[in-house]
Design brief:
The structure holds two protein chains of two kinds. By secondary structure, chain A is an alpha/beta fold. Chain A folds into three domains: 117 residues, Orthogonal Bundle (Globin-like), CATH 1.10.490; 150 residues, Reverse transcriptase/Diguanylate cyclase domain (Alpha-Beta Plaits, 2-Layer Sandwich); 247 residues, Alpha-Beta Barrel (TIM Barrel), CATH 3.20.20. Chain A contains 22 helices and 16 strands. In chain A, strand 9 and strand 10 form a beta hairpin. The chains are: A alpha/beta, B alpha/beta.
Chain lengths: 581, 269
């Protein structure tokens, strides 16, 4: 503060008048007494300047500057100061000097000059300081904005659970890896990783443990993958992006490392968890690749690894993918094909080896595909079994076979039974008994003229329901045959419990009979099967019989019936039936 | 990318700032063209505007003097604006070099400027925060570092409450502050009042301040008095600011021209 207390404890009349004149012209950070004391001191300087010889401009300058420094710094403050000095200084202080008017004019000029200079400097300083403050505030605001944007961007591109990059960031990085100019000749790879049976952890130990396990796996992957980007796509799906690969070997090495990282038992909240993962690997040239295709390929490949049992990697195979795509397209077309009536049945004769009579026919489904021509069951049944469409398709086959077979008895001759394959899903489905019953009632086909062929694998399950259903059907009089006997599980125990009427022996045993030297073992197996079957009161039909020699040897063994090209290829029902009329 | 709601504002010096307008009223040059234009419009509407600012600043000075004499060593000045001439730390630290002062203002430029002025002053700090967010002020690390809330503090809410609308519940804001204070603390409060003003003048003034980020909410003496709830009002109560313990009897003349009313309350207990 500019005033110096005690300089003049009793300010003179002039200083008081001056203080009164300037108070209110601007904000003065002092009391009236302090102001008067300050002005009293300045009054002394003014009086001195007026009298001193030679006249010193600097004294007036100093007074002007001090006024500004003391914040008596408004235009009004200056005006009133000039006025009060001019009018009262000489009079109030009783000053006597030569040419006092002249000196007064010069003094006022000096005071106002000093005042204006100081005020100008002060104004410029203040302008500079407020601009500096605005600039700093702006810099700070921009920095804060950048930081908040960076924070927001991090949140938007990372997974909160594991802290790994999320799908958004991964997609960006993959797109960048594929699009960067000059990368055309290089190669890029991804490992699409999914934990095996992770759901079991969630279901048995709870989601909290599941989440902790995911975080542990994420941390291990991040550590073991070094510079490669590891992202969590969601759930238990992770992906590793490998840029600039030299070929599939690089990717396999990455996948092996990742599998090893996951495989190490993890201690999570007191539980030691042993988990494995499956990985789909895609590695290709950057040129021509696009992210969507690449990730789709990785996804399919991951499923190959999964369906092969998990805990392994699989490498993308374009041909396999092509086949699967075609198969997928075919399976998707089944419901519409059923609706449009594109399926039909051929029948293959089952011939008695005792007298050559036609004992039955096996219904075989055909698909008259509008583009691909007639398709045999091996090109679409497996697919229908995978997708579950087999229930719908198998139901149609069963109904159609019953409908057609009923008409065959019209000739009066003992009509053959119709043998229909039942898929595992059909047998395990509740309502099979009602379905068959309703069919028989609707078509009027006698139960003993329907044979249901089931595979050994159908009986692998420990479920009791299918056995009970088959027993009900057998009690109705429906024949039950075990198809492809001898190639599967061949557990004989179920023969004890099941109401089986017939064993159909797989064609591969019969094939051995074509050459006498090789066929010895097969012949012995066949002979044993036949005697076992007969001991259990079952009939035996040999499948895949292609030559008269095979037929002869089967007859010699005691086999009851045979099926195969030697006895007739699959054909429409009327062609088969023509033989017995 | 959409800007999240917690992203900070940008600095726009084309928009008048009430802190820099106040500086202009006080005769300072810490202001920009937009501030001067708005302040001049205000002076045209209410010619006493510069006088108001001076009278209010003088009230602040007298109040700080009084509190320092009463033994207060800690000051929390909320809505401190551009801390130019005669600010709290100058007055308080002149009387007691150990006095500690924390300034709070919402205007980022005012805060940046305060920071420059306070550089090297270990006993003073500035915090960018809003009076409407008292919890954040009280919890701010710089406030916690400099002020010991278990000891008496003078909270200055001077010439700022008229920028807080009734919707922001000023009484509750003050209560939050009060509840954090130790017995023997003080509240120094002043704000623009419409007592004795014509409807035209008030409308004109409000129109000027709508150009800023801070529209005006003038209040009556009665309303101001209730804001001291919980405090014992020191003499002479809530008055036109020149009437609050004037240095000389003359300086309290024509007091209502100052537009500002204020008072000082003490927290008993």
């Amino acid at each position: 503060m500019a005033e110096s207390p005690g300089a003049n404890p009793c300010p003179g009349t002039f200083a008081r008048a001056w203080a009164k004149a300037v108070s209110g012209t601007s904000y003065l950070p002092m009391t009236q007494a302090q102001l008067e004391s300050l002005l009293d001191r300045l009054t002394g300087q003014l009086a001195g300047a007026l009298l001193t010889e030679p006249f010193d401009l600097r004294a007036g300058h100093r007074v002007g500057a001090e006024l500004v420094a003391a914040h008596i710094a408004s235009a009004e403050g200056l005006g009133r100061t000039v006025e009060v000095i001019q009018l009262r200084l000489v009079r109030d202080l009783g000053l006597v000097a030569e040419d006092v008017e002249d000196r007064m004019a010069r003094l006022l000029a000096a005071v106002t000059t000093g005042y204006a200079r100081a005020l100008r400097d002060r104004t410029l300083d203040e302008q500079e300081s407020i601009r500096r403050a605005a600039m700093r505030a702006r810099t700070q605001a921009e920095r804060a904005l950048r930081a908040s944007e960076a924070r927001f961007r991090h949140q938007a591109t990372h997974d909160p659970l594991t802290g790994l990059p999320n799908r958004t960031l991964f997609t960006e990085r993959l797109a960048a890896a594929l699009n960067e100019p000059g990368r055309g000749a290089q190669r890029v790879g991804v490992c699409f990783l999914d934990l095996d049976r992770f759901k079991v952890v969630n279901d048995t130990l709870g989601h909290q443990i599941g989440d902790l396990l995911l975080a542990t796996v994420a941390e291990r992957l991040r550590k073991s993958m070094g510079e490669h980007l590891v992202a969590r796509l969601g759930g238990d799906e992770f992906v590793i992006l490998v840029e600039r690969t030299a070929g599939t070997d690089d990717m396999v090495a990455v996948a092996e490392t990742a599998l090893a990282a996951v495989r190490t038992p993890a201690l999570v909240d007191g539980h030691e968890l042993q988990i494995s993962a499956s990985i789909g690997i895609v590695e290709r040239q950057v040129a021509g690749a696009n992210p969507t295709d690449l990730m789709r390929a990785a996804d399919s490949t991951l499923h190959w690894a999964k369906s092969a049992g998990g805990a392994r990697w699989a490498l993308y195979d374009a041909e396999r993918n092509q086949r699967e795509l075609a198969r997928y397209a075919l399976s998707a077309a089944i419901p519409a094909a059923l609706e449009r009536g594109e399926f039909y049945l051929d029948y293959q004769p089952l011939t008695s080896l005792r007298d050559g009579s036609l004992v039955g026919v096996e219904a075989l489904v055909r698909w008259r595909h509008p583009e691909l021509g007639v398709l045999r069951p091996d090109s679409f049944i497996g697919l229908a079994e995978e997708t579950g469409l087999i229930v719908q398709l198998g139901g149609w086959v069963l109904a159609e076979a019953c409908r057609e077979a009923e008409a065959w008895s019209a000739g009066g001759v003992a009509a053959p039974f119709v043998s229909v394959n039942l898929a595992v899903r059909q047998v395990h489905r509740p309502g099979l008994v009602q379905e068959v019953r309703a069919l028989l009632r609707r078509t009027g086909l006698p139960p003993e003229r329907l044979q249901l062929e089931i595979t050994e694998s159908t009986m692998m399950s420990t479920a009791e329901e299918p056995v009970r259903a088959l027993r009900v059907l057998a009690d109705l009089g429906v024949r039950i045959a075990i198809d492809d006997f001898g190639t599967g599980y061949s557990n004989l125990a179920y023969l004890r419990d099941l109401p089986v009427t017939e064993l159909k022996v797989a064609g591969e045993f019969v094939a051995g009979l074509r050459s006498p030297s090789v066929g010895r073992t097969d012949e012995r197996i066949l002979a044993s099967l036949v005697s076992l079957a007969h001991a259990l009161d079952l009939t035996v039909t040999a499948e895949g019989v292609e030559t008269a020699g095979q037929a002869e040897r089967l007859r010699a063994i005691g086999c009851d019936a045979a099926q195969g090209w030697h006895f007739g290829r699959p054909a429409p029902a009327d062609r088969i039936l023509a033989r017995i009329r | 990318m959409q800007r999240p709601d917690w992203a900070p504002d940008t600095i726009d010096i084309e928009r008048p700032s009430v802190a820099r307008m106040y500086d202009y009223y006080l005769g300072g040059s810490h202001n920009f063209a937009a501030d001067r234009a708005a302040a001049q419009a205000m002076v045209a509407a209410v010619p006493e505007a510069p006088l108001m600012a001076q009278a209010n600043r003088a009230f602040l000075r007298r109040a700080v003097h009084h509190l320092a004499d009463a033994g207060i060593k800690q000051f929390l000045d909320i809505g401190s604006g551009i801390p130019t001439v005669g600010n709290v730390h100058e007055i308080a630290q002149q009387l007691d070099p150990q006095a500690r002062v924390v300034y709070v203002d919402v205007d980022p430029v005012a805060v940046a400027h305060s920071r420059e002025i306070l550089a090297g002053n270990e006993q003073a700090a500035v915090v960018q925060e809003d009076l409407r967010n008292p919890e954040a002020i009280l919890a701010h690390p710089d406030v916690r570092k400099l002020l010991d809330l278990s000891q008496p503090v003078a909270v200055m809410v001077v010439a700022v409450l008229h920028f807080v609308s009734d919707d922001d519940r000023p009484a509750e804001l003050l209560r939050t502050l009060r509840d954090a204070l130790a017995p023997g603390s003080y509240l120094v409060l002043s704000q623009a009042s419409d007592d004795g003003r014509s409807e035209d003048e008030r409308a004109e003034a409000e129109r000027v301040y709508r150009r800023t980020d801070n529209p005006l909410s003038v209040r009556s003496r009665a309303e101001l008095t209730t804001l001291f709830d919980g405090f014992e009002l020191l003499d002479p109560g809530v008055v036109w600011v020149p009437q609050w313990r004037p240095d000389t009897p003359e300086s309290a003349e024509d007091a209502e021209r100052a537009v500002f009313m204020g008072g000082v309350g003490r927290l008993g207990g």
